[in-house]
Amino acid sequence: MGDKGVQVGPEPLTFDQVVAVAREDAPVTLTERALERIAAARAHVEELSARPTPVYGVSTGFGALATRHIPPELRRQLQLNIVRSHAAGSGPEVEREVVRAMMLLRLRTLASGHSGVQPVTAQTLAALLNAGITPIVHEYGSLGCSGDLAPLSHVALALIGEGEVRDAAGRRKPAAQALAEADIPPVTLGAKEGLALINGTDGMLGMLVLAACDLRRLLVCADIAAAMSVEALLGTDRVFAAELQQLRPHPGQAASAANLRALLAGSAIMESHRGPDCTRVQDAYSLRCSPQVNGAARDTLAHAEQVASRELASAIDNPVVLPDGRVESNGNFHGAPLAYVLDFLAIPVADVASMSERRTDRMLDRARSHGLPAFLADDPGVDSGHMIAQYTQAAIVSELKRLAVPASVDSLPSSAMQEDHVSMGWSAARKLRRALDGLTRVLAIEILTAARALDLRAPLRPAPATAAVVAALREHVGPPGPDRHLAPEIDHAVRLVRDGTLRAAAERVTGPLA
Asked: What EC number(s) would the UniProt record show (predicted)?
């Protein structure tokens, strides 16, 4: 991003730019081209506002009330009212990173010059981001159609100095106070501006971008976990050979298998059972088919990323200002393209976690673990080892299966049947975020268990890459021994998966994993 942070103009934003602003507080700046286009579109809106002919969003009511023509003296009140009335969310606060992503993406649409806002309105939204002021947005309120109306309305409410926000230090306070402390004058809304600030898919898209970045990292950890379990269970790496993967040329599968080969290279444990005395012909599916499942998840993610990239290049508003000055109604605010892939991603998230849990269970079962003690316990019967850690995995996997049920197949009509089909994309995004947290925990428990199993294979040594992962884990979690409080160890493993520590340990040996 450089010293200038993120430049926001009519051009599409990148995933990295969204993450930088949402999670790293990168500063934003509107480009000169953006300000020129915003001003040009605003001139068209002002001209239309002066005409007697009704224009939706400029001189009419909204939704089912669009048939009422609003006289000029009430139009500013109209825009103020839509923000106040639509800021009707309820429930827990939405995460700061989601709100910041949503604010940035709404700013990008304003910068496209198709919304018709005043330049000062876009500049004030940028100022809130740069000051670290985050409007309080609630869990419930968006149907994913007509945009994320309630969530974006809470953002717009802060722009006019109403509602509540959190400042850069995380303190909750009235928006008017936070704006005053940051020396940011509140916006006085003009014609069309209230609607322009709230009619977008920005919440759904922001959560999709963040989820895609998280899932891509987690799928590398899924390969690390699989490699450690294959090694610990005395499985074979021959099934991951490139020549076998090429017989089914899915790109995600090839990438996953290449990771597994790199992670298992040089393993003394693998070499210990390659000879003619080994009678095992095939490993269980949860070991042998890891590249097929983890790879299919990658290919599903690639499709979702393509959809997100198209949306990042879109100007989502209704009505929109066209270059020739026309203001036209449209249906581009419908969240179906995002809702479908948000739902789609929840399926491989659940399945990758399910396969991970099956490998963990196999390591704990003396009948299937090829010489490991029951539950990897120090003194089975006196000690329970990792027995209940697998219960925790199983509980999460069961939850992930419920979260994989699509939200987008549901639709509840609203606005007196004017908005008679909605996407439920916001709900799909919210459950995907919960699902990714679950996958993180399931993989962490598998890695924690596999590390213990690899230690128990001593004096045989694991591969240099998997040994590096075990060593990184051992800086926070002790080696095998009598039972101890397991929850803190699981929490350490979760953090090390989430912050990239374990992946980095592996990649110092293998080089970048895909």
From this structure: 4.3.1.3
Instruction: Tell me which residues are annotated as active site.
Output: 56
Q: Looking at domain 6-200, does it have CATH number 1.10.275.10?
A: yes
pLDDT digits (tens, 9 = 90+) for 75-116: 788 889 999 999 999 999 999 999 999 999 999 999 999 999
Q: 349 near 342, Cβ under 8 Å? A: no
SS3 for 413-467 is: CECCCCECCCCCHHHHHHHHHHHHHHHHHHHHHHHHHHHHHHHHCCCCCCCHHHH
At residue 261, φ and ψ (nearest 5 deg) are: -65, -45
Q: Domain segments of the chain: what residues? A: 6-200, 207-274+281-317+328-510
Q: Give the per-residue pLDDT at 2.
A: 45
pLDDT score of 226: 98
Please report, to the nearest 10 degrees, the dihedral formed by the alpha carbons of residues 376, 378, 383, 386 taken in order: -30
What six digits make up the tokens of 62? 């909204």
Out of 3.30.1360.70, 3.30.70.1110, 1.20.200.10, 3.30.450.80, select the CATH number for domain 207-274+281-317+328-510.
1.20.200.10
pLDDT in tens, 106-150: 999 999 999 999 999 999 999 999 999 999 999 999 998 878 999
